[in-house]
Specification:
- With 255 residues, the chain is α/β, with parallel strands linked by helices.
- It has one domain (3-44, 57-254): Rossmann fold.
- Helices cover 36% and strands 26% of the residues.
- It has eight helices and ten strands.
- It has helices at residues 47-54, 77-87, 103-113, 118-132, 147-159, 177-193, 205-208, 233-246, and strands spanning 3-16, 19-32, 36-40, 62-67, 70-71, 88-91, 165-169, 198-201, 213-218, 221-227.
- The longest helix has 17 residues, at 177-193.
- The chain starts with a strand and ends in a 9-residue tail after the last helix.
Length: 255
């Protein structure tokens, strides 16, 4: 299998020498093409820091991160902007849609920045809208659609450029249970049918149970990994809960 993401001995410190906080401590793991991986951990465990480093929002203190074989810790300037624009897709908890643009225009934005032709943009948007079940709301503005629909529009925007890696930060955090289930089923579809590679940070065991692997982080280190394998989603959910129980109170504030 092709390796999409490789995190190699990454550490991240904040503060000064007299008051140093270790957010990540020599962490290493890999994600292969077509995997759907969740990262779980209590508040302060380092999971958000990890996502910020992979998304190049923040920089490592030491170690390296490779996406598609490219060491992104070395990128600067235009090379960094090009990488963010073309190789990563982002799905945020608060959607980050532009209120003055329709759903169609929000999805089209990343392709417009790449100077794609309108005919190509239109074709891609209609296809991804069908995949995510949002064809009927493309001409509506964000204030005219539900939270679940907004998140599916955000997901469409994330995958429209066919990025190597989709990063999802608590994508169900602002959704009700029905909308969460619908979004996660669409994520499953994107992963299994379109072979999208997804790395999702979540505090929720139900959300994590839709992925193929879960990485648990505690105190900036990998505590445990679970592979779904042939388990049903319910069986996998139960195994995730077992690990959460093993962690004791560490995730109680997050479940």
């Amino acid at each position: 299998m092709e390796n999409i993401l490789k995190v190699e001995k990454v550490s991240k410190y904040y503060g000064s020498r007299s008051s140093l906080t270790k957010a990540l401590d020599n962490i290493s793991f890999e994600v292969e093409k077509g995997e759907f991986v969740s990262v779980m951990g209590a508040s302060g465990s380092g999971k958000t820091t990890l996502l910020n480093l992979i998304s190049t929002i923040d920089r490592v203190t030491s170690g390296n991160i490779f996406v598609g074989g490219l060491d992104i810790t070395k990128l600067k300037g235009n090379s960094l902007n090009k990488f963010r624009r073309e190789e990563l897709g982002f799905v945020f908890q608060d959607f980050n849609l532009l209120d003055t643009l329709t759903a169609y225009e929000n999805i089209a934005l990343s392709l417009s920045i790449q100077n794609k032709k309108f005919s190509e943009i239109d074709l891609k948007i209609k296809k991804v809208a069908n995949d995510l079940g949002i064809r009927n709301i493309l001409n509506k503005y964000p204030y005219e659609i539900s939270g679940g629909e907004k998140q599916r529009v955000a997901s469409a925007r994330a995958i429209i450029t066919e990025p190597k890696l989709i990063l999802a930060d608590e994508p169900t955090g602002a959704l009700d249970s029905k909308a969460s289930r619908m979004l996660l089923e669409r994520f499953e579809y994107l992963n299994k049918e379109l072979e999208a590679t997804i790395l999702m940070v979540t505090h929720d065991a139900f959300t994590a149970s839709y992925s193929s692997r879960v990485i648990f982080i505690k105190d900036g280190k990998i505590f445990k990994e679970l592979n779904r394998g042939d388990n049903t989603r319910k069986e996998f959910f139960d195994k995730i809960i077992d690990v959460v129980t093993l962690l004791g109170g560490d995730l109680n504030d997050a479940l």
